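Let us practice reading a record.
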Amino acid sequence: MATPPKTTLTAFFLLCQNDAFAKALLYVDVPRYFTWNVSLKEWKRRLQRTPVDGWLGLKADALGRIYTMHVSNFECYCLRMLLNVIQGPINFVNLKTVGGQVLEDFRQACEKLGLLKMTITGMLQWKRLYCVAPLRK
């Protein structure tokens, strides 16, 4: 099996395996404390900004960008949802593991964690607000 190309996400997995502080982070929090080195394709600790108490050499308070995923690509959308709630994942299998059980896909992991229920409720509320409400006068 071929090794997948290095991306910001796969590099985050490596970071979580090797950095104690990163193990406590969500993927969305990484740009606050680390910068992406394009040539090396790895996350590096920030050298400027405000020091983080209790973590020598770690700086914070920077803005970063994490891309969103459209719900039409549902498996990737579920992956993105998991990255918003699981701290310090070390690989894709880790993201699909809930309660010690490795699930088939990210959708099942989201279902097991109750994340899709919130999404469906939110979508129904959105639909009611933006699709039905304007028709009423």
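A brief commentary: Confidence is low (pLDDT under 50) at residues 132-137.
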